[in-house]
Amino acid sequence: MHRLRHGDHGPAVAEIRSTLAGLGFLHDNTAPRDWVGSDVVFDRELDGAVRAFQQQRGLLVDGVVGPATYRSLKEASYRLGARTLIYQLSAPLYGDDVAALQTRLQDLGFYVDRVDGYFGPRTHEGLSSFQREIGLASDGICGPETLRALDLLGTRVSGGSPHAISEEEIVRRSGPQLSGKRIVIDPGLGGNDHGVIVRSRHGAISEADILWDLARRLEGRMAATGMETFLSRPYHSNPTDIERAGTSNAFGADLMLSLRCDASPNPAARGIASFHYGNSHGSESMIGQVLTGYIQREIVARTALQDCRSHGRTWDLLRLTNMPTVQIDLGYLTNPQDAALLADPRSRDVIAEAILIAVKRLYLLGQDDQPTGTYTFAELLAEELSITETR
Questions:
Q1: CA 64 – CA 43 distance, rounded (Å)
Q2: Strands (DSSP E) found in 294-335
């Protein structure tokens, strides 16, 4: 779709205005029927409403209604019972009605995964189990009869996050050793998309090559510890985030680490930020949240990158992967200091080591008292060897 922003006008703007009003983000004395004309303007009030919606839904807050924001607006407008919900491979269903169904199934003990608004195979399995338990046809279709049964039963248990508990238990059971862990490393860009070109005392290097080089350095260190690593793409390819998520799911990995750089019209914007899955329904990846915290602390302690902290987001890459996934925005290539640091091969070595140490801390589950920024790659290798010898 065409990206809509402040100053645009037309029927598409009217649709967005009407949707946001219905969701409670826009308070307007004008009747909705007056918004259907082609002269409806994307004004400052609508810009503010779009930004508030984006912030609440874990989207990039830029006031622009692009494909991701438009899709999220459509999802937010669905209410449970307004349509039949069914698992469809060719045209998967997304929406707040799916999230409401997942929450009800979770409260009843039939669904333990993320409340993400995606009607996938796990939602289908949970719904089918519920139907089978109460004597309905276990077809995995949420229609009027199933909704009546959900309403009649109410909830047996509420509170807590089964998905967060199951994520933590998987990490706990896998043990502290890194050997055997399966990790997907996802360098951004690729193919013909080279991104920003950085010129420094180390020579010119593209954003894509910075990310690819860092991925290979991280891959080498992980392989040295006995981890099994996969790259989400070949060098000459730039898959979509949905394609990257699908590839990663096929590997059956324990974690996915996505590497990105940032840019801004303001050259003063700088620093590193990390992202994990987290949405407005209160569902988030607890392991992703813990790992992003470790990554931020380790990289900030070892480099001059400013700490822009970790955040929950609903981006496709974080939402559609089965394993805990984190995205690391390593700095702004539009900032001279960040660009110079990322162009330096020695800095990329330091960042790769910091990310590996953060992953190790995750699997130690807080059983390590070494101060942030002091745990070295040599110490990690020695510890991995000692764990292997005692098994």
A1: 12
A2: 307-313, 325-332
How many Å apart are CA 349 and CA 273, to the nearest integer? 18
Q: Which of 138, 159, 180 finishes a domain? A: 159
Phi, psi angles (nearest 5°) of residue 116: -120, 0
Rounded Cα gap, residues 25 and 336, in angstroms: 38
**Separation between Cα atoms, residue 279 and residue 90, nearest integer Å:** 25
Q: How confident is the model at residue 163 (pLDDT cuts 50, 70, 90)?
A: low
Q: Check whether residue 219 and residue 316 sit in a common domain.
A: yes
What percent of the chain shows pLDDT beyond 90? 71
Residues 296 and 346 in one domain: yes
Overall domain count for the chain = 3
Whether residues 298 and 232 fall in one domain = yes
Name 114's Cβ contacts closer than 8 Å, sequence gap at least 6. Answer: 102, 163, 277, 283, 284, 285
Domain identity same for 335 and 376: yes
* Parent domain of 65: 11-76
Convert the pLDDT of each residue in 328-374 to its tens digit.
999 999 999 999 999 999 999 999 999 999 999 999 876 666 788 88
User: Which residues are 311's β-sheet partners?
Assistant: 275
Residue count of the chain: 391
112 and 224 fall within a common domain: no
pTM for the full predicted model: 0.80
